[in-house]
């Protein structure tokens, strides 16, 4: 078994995900609409409500978990893995990494 029940993805790998991957943002509503914004197509499911919300979701559906820095989404991925989900991705670095300006190439 792998050390993590999920795979970390960097913001540059987001384009590799197909349309079948559901984007779940586990931040609070004020963060979702705040300065960092959210990914296109992301659904807001705050971490505290995630397990109840996910109870009716198909276990085979791939899920990308998103938060501010990657910590809460990693916890969310672990909780979902315990719930039987098998295709989980964590956005490493979270929305901070998505919004971080890329260093100019020299």
UniProtKB/TrEMBL annotation:
Matches recorded under InterPro entries: GlpE_sulfurtransferase, Rhodanese-like_dom, Rhodanese-like_dom_sf
Domain of life according to the entry: Bacteria
Gene3D superfamilies for the chain: Rhodanese-like domain
A Pfam family hit: Rhodanese
PROSITE patterns: RHODANESE_3 (PS50206)
Transmembrane segments: none
Domain Rhodanese positions: 17-104
Name of the protein this chain belongs to: Rhodanese domain-containing protein
Organism ancestry: Bacteria, Pseudomonadati, Myxococcota, Myxococcia, Myxococcales
